[in-house]
Structures are given as C-alpha cells and as structure tokens.
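Researcher: I need the complex structure. Ligand is NDP. Inputs:
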Amino acid sequence: MASLSEKIVLITGGSGGLGRALASAFAAQGCRVAISARNRESLQRSADEMARNGAPVRAIACDVTQRKEVKNLADEIARHWGAVQILVNNAGMAHAVSFADMSDGLWDDTLATNLTGSYNCGKIFLPAMVQAKWGRIINIGSTTAKVGYSHVTAYTASKHGLLGLTRALALETARHGVTVNMICPGYIDDERTHENARVMAQKTGKSVDDILKLFAASAPQNRLIKPEEVASLALLMASEKLAGMTGQAINVDGGAVMA
Ligand code: NDP
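Model: Output:
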C-alpha cells in the first residue's frame, strides 16, 4: 500500500499481542511507527524485536488514562517525526468477574483505559489531523461493542461506549479528511486469550486446551482470530482505498456476531 509509506503512526498498547502485530504491519508498509504502553521494559522489548526485522519503530512509555502523558507522547513523536497521522487506539484491559463481585476500582480502571484513554488520545492527536486535512483514527473495539456478554460488564460498557465515540466523532470529522472507524475482533490467538484461558481453566477444573477450544467454538468458523488478520483490516482502513468509509465498526470474529 504505497500511500501509507512514511506515514506517522501511533499504536497505543503496542507491547501487547495485537499491538505488536499492528505495529509490525504498519512498519512493513514503510510507516514510521511509535508504540506506547505503561511498562517500559516490555515496550522496549517489543520495539527491539521489531527493529531486528528492520522496522523504524520508536517506543515511548505513556499511560493513556493520563492526558498529560498523552500530550508528552505527542510532543516526543513530533520532535522526531512530526504530527501523528494514523492513531490506533488499541490499549485496553479486560477482567472477567460477575457484576456483583466487581470492585468499583475495576469499573473505573476499565472505563478509564478502554474509553477515556481513546478520548484522551483523540483530544491530543485529532487537531493536527484536522489541520492537515488528513488523518485516520482506528479504534480497537471487540464484538462486545455490539452485543452483551456475561461477567464482563465493565469491558462491554467500555467497548459499547467506544463505538458511540467512533460514530459521533466520525460525523464531526467527515468533512476534514479524517476517518474514524472501529475494528471488532473476536477471540484473538494471543497471550491475553491464552492467559484468560489459563485463569478459566483454574476456576473450572477444565484443561487450558479445552477452554481454548470453547473460545474457538463460539465462532462459526470454529477458530481463534490471528492478530495479523486484524492488522490487515487496520491497514485497509488507514489507506486511501477505504477513504470513503467512516463511522463503521467491522467485525473480525469468524462469524460470531453479525451486527
Ligand atoms: P494485552 O493485554 O496483551 O495488551 C494490552 C496492551 O495495552 C499492552 O501493551 C498494555 O501495556 C497496554 N495498556 C493497558 N493499559 C494501558 C494504559 N492505561 N495506557 C497505555 N497502555 C495500556 O491485550 P491484547 O493485545 O489482546 O488487546 C489489545 C486490544 O484488543 C484491546 O483493546 C482489547 O480490548 C482488544 N481485543 C482483544 C481481544 C483478544 O482476544 N485478545 C479480542 C477483542 C478485542 P501496559 O500494561 O504495559 O500498559
């Protein structure tokens, strides 16, 4: 995708499984890619790994819940490369617990990370996109943005909220050359899903393998989604090929949700 070459991209949550796949995919297109997350060590490890494959990746620690840190992140990227042109709001957290047992802290943290984090990044990075009359915001949602699941009320509420933010912001930016879209993955074959399976296996006495099979079976295709599949859609959303698409939320979930 020649149009993406040299573009300045930010992937929040770039040290996680999906974040790394997103960063590698944009780097492979010749983009200048900044990745951010809170833990510096794991972030730097991810950047080093990508740099070994020749990718121009820069690791900058940032907690997306802290507006000041997001501003510092923007300043640092601008010092090296310029204003971010493609923002991928990927940083996220998910903990499964019943509504009755959920602490207020878990509710607050989930909303602050998955929803307010994307809001903070939008506030900081959108103005330069509007000024340049070109920009892309890609929010990483989940099928939980469209349907409810038990035991993840905070996560579901945060992703439904992110869908609302995606749609409303798409309207406000539609005449400014900026598109705002969302990708809604199903269970991704990454560390997070395997960790969740380990936790569920402990709780239920089932094997990790059986839990992973259950996750896979929740999709008609009976499989987990590869992070690279999600990254392929992000590249398309960022490219000129889909310049006419905005305010959309596309599922990559093996057919699990058809809404
Ligand atoms: P991981 O837990 O592996 O990665 C999450 C990433 O977000 C890490 O880099 C983490 O780094 C970062 N992060 C968490 N909190 C913050 C914060 N406050 N500020 C900045 N960075 C933060 O998860 P995944 O890679 O699986 O998830 C990525 C996205 O994909 C999430 O939005 C998730 O909801 C979504 N998703 C995942 C699915 C799956 O099956 N895995 C399915 C559907 C959607 P650090 O902790 O160092 O900050």
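Model: Summary of the prediction. Residues 12-19, 37-39, 42, 63-65, 90-94, 113, 117, 140, 142, 185, 187-188, 190-193 surround NDP (CB under 6 Å).
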